[in-house]
Write a structure and sequence with these properties.
single chain; 5-stranded mixed β-sheet; alpha/beta
Length: about 260
């Protein structure tokens, strides 16, 4: 089976902390199960609760920085070496990852700080984490603009992980409670609205994460089929999106 004939897997929002060994081990088993069938692994952000591209993140000077993530990071390196193409779209818990995977793991992971156009099996697709889908969350957009800029990154690197990591993890927890209502039963409508706007721009497929709700929406515009998908989250639903050429997309949940 050639790479073009193999499956694509899209996954989002695992929010691994390193203290959730059961969830991480389940994820590693999932990747082992899929590794012979997939040619592309697309991570739609927030794989970890907090990840920043600190200089010397895994050097002898600071060996404990993100060391709890090593099982997952090591597995990604292994998949890369087997020829699986990995794309990582930064989420709102990911910062300055441009060369993180290549610097410390020799992994050819394509990192995208923002959403962008991609070609997926010949279709024009827009792929993003999805945290900018709701234009009404203006306060979040302002905060994101402050956090995700070169000046802030320089300051965070100067402060170092011993100061930044505890603060970032506390902030991440507060942010999660604010923007993800545990009692919410349906996907936020802003994601589908955002996808519709992208369809009007000419995109055939829109794939987003961040909402933590698995979602599949079909829309017809000018007689042409448009598709929006959200793989949901690994943290709660253990859900993911599969693309099997030439059959198409399918939302699935992992169960042993």
């Amino acid at each position: 089976m050639t790479p073009s004939e193999k499956d694509w897997i899209f996954i989002s929002d695992a929010h691994f902390t390193g203290q959730d060994s059961e969830s991480m081990e389940l994820f590693l088993r999932f990747l082992d199960t899929e590794r012979r069938k997939i040619g592309h692994l697309v991570i739609l952000g927030d794989l970890f609760e907090f990840l920043f591209g600190f200089k010397n993140s895994f050097s002898t000077e600071s060996p404990s920085v993100f060391s709890e993530y090593l099982p997952v990071l090591g597995k990604l390196r292994s998949l890369c070496r087997e020829g699986i193409q990995i794309r990582y779209f930064e989420g709102n818990h990911d910062f300055y990852l441009r060369s993180f995977f290549s610097d410390y793991f020799g992994s050819k992971v394509e990192v995208y700080p923002n959403g962008c156009e991609q070609t997926v099996e010949g279709k024009r697709a827009f792929i993003a984490h999805g945290d900018l889908s709701n234009p009404r969350q203006w306060s979040y957009r302002v905060l994101r603009g402050i956090l995700k800029n070169p000046l802030t990154y320089r300051l965070l690197r100067l402060a170092g992980p011993s100061i930044v990591c505890p603060v970032a993890r506390k902030w991440s927890s507060m942010s999660f409670r604010k923007y993800h209502n545990e009692g919410q039963l349906h996907p936020p409508p802003a994601f589908k609205t955002f996808a519709h706007r992208k369809f009007l721009e000419g995109f055939e497929v829109v794939i987003l994460g961040h909402s933590h709700f698995p979602e599949a929406v079909e829309e017809w515009i000018d007689g042409r089929r448009r598709l929006y998908y959200n793989p949901g989250d690994w943290a709660v639903h253990r859900s993911f999106l599969r693309l099997t050429p030439p059959d198409g997309f399918q939302l699935e949940r992992y169960s042993e």
